Amino acid sequence: MRRLALLASVGGAALVALDGTVLMVVQPALRRDLGASVAEVQWTSTAYLLTVAAFLVLAGRLGDRYGHTRLLVAGVAGFAAASAGIAVAPGVGWVIALRALQGLFGALAQPATLALLRLAYPPELLGRPVAVRTVAIGVAAAAGPLLGGVLVTRFGWRSVFVLNVPAALAVAALALAVRVPAPRRSGPARLGAGGPALLALALAGLVHALSGVPAYGWTAPRTLLGLGAAAGLGALFIRAERRAGQPLVPAEVARSRPVAASMALLLVVSAGMSGALFTVTFLLQDVRGLGPLETGLRVLPLTALMIAGAPVAGAALRRFGARRTALAGTALVVLGIAGLDSGGGVAFGLLGAGFATVMVTATGTVVGDAPPGFAGVVGGLKQTAMNVGPSLGIAAAAGAGAAGAAPAGRPLAVLAALAGLGLAAARLLPGRGSQEAGARPGVGAGPGSGRGLRG
């Protein structure tokens, strides 16, 4: 049963990762075929990002209440239906609307893929399946552009979305075969509508404001208005949560220091890495004159070390504990970003190895430390950090002149400093001793105890 849970988790996570990277190759052909503008094509990505970011936490909470298998099946089935709709869409407006719907169903699926692992494996055995999941995401992300290029060249852009349908249905079949404990229900029967709505609007507003920074800048009225609205809605959400009888983010989760530290670590490290890749793409192609294929080859060490580094990170997590492993991984990310100005393979390799280490450590920590009955909402928070981080990183890179005339050293230094903030978060993670004290199968430690971080 654990193997089925692992296959369902890996399949669901890889499906979403593959779809995201394939789209980069699809967009030029989609634009020509549908006669779309550049802004409309950009919205095929933005619409997806907005709905994913808005609904991840709510989806995880619903999974905790009604069952993660149900949410995963509903998510991937809806993802398949939306993909089929995009494959026959008559115009770009339909594509944008269906991409938003695809994002909603992707949000339903993503927290469930992590929660299934937490339910199927005891805390001390989580490290290996989390590493396998990380490897699968890396392979899918790396294969996306290549697979997309082959499909678009031979069969057209619509074939990419057709491929999603059987893959998603296969994941749904695997999920239906998984048997995990029924969710624990307590408290009021329903969540209030106010908290989820406020959080969804705040996150959507934040992602929308950040996605516009490369085009409009940090000081543009639309950017300031969007960030201000997101901050205001966030404050209202916190106020509503404090008064709610059944909050969206339970107090046990909100008070967990390992969970909060892992969220912050993933946010800033994913921001630094995404912004660095955005910057180095312009450096290699616009400044040094490399083509897309040559640029892709330069980045290969990042993918290779990310895939190879995940199992090593899992072993390091078991031996040295979350704090020391996360500190080492974050330091590698910072060194890698700082060295990208040379465009060398060593810097890309450091970045890939460091990011894999942070991913495995933070994911294992956040899932292992999830209070009993709240694995879904914790998984939703983790995925939210991973979705908001890249928007923040690209906005920071653009604000520092990554796509302009400024030398690449300046934005890369800013991004290295941004990733370096993760060192403070990593220091808040449990050490090896606290992990061993709390990682007893079936024993629910209290919030912030560091329970289950050995694996």
Automatic annotation (TrEMBL):
Keywords attached to this entry: Antibiotic resistance, Membrane, Transmembrane, Transmembrane helix
Keyword Transmembrane included in the entry's annotation: yes
Family matches, as SUPFAM superfamilies: MFS general substrate transporter
Short name of any one Pfam family annotated for the protein: MFS_1
Keyword Transmembrane annotated: yes
TM region(s), chain numbering: 41-59, 71-97, 130-151, 157-178, 190-210, 259-284, 296-317, 324-340, 346-367, 388-406, 412-430
Compositional bias ranges of the Gly residues kind: 441-455
InterPro entries the UniProt entry points to: MFS, MFS_dom, MFS_trans_sf
Compartments, record wording: Cell membrane
Membrane topology: Multi-pass membrane protein
Region feature (Disordered): 433-455
Segments forming domain Major facilitator superfamily (MFS) profile: 5-434
Protein name: Major facilitator superfamily (MFS) profile domain-containing protein
Lineage: Bacteria, Bacillati, Actinomycetota, Actinomycetes, Kitasatosporales
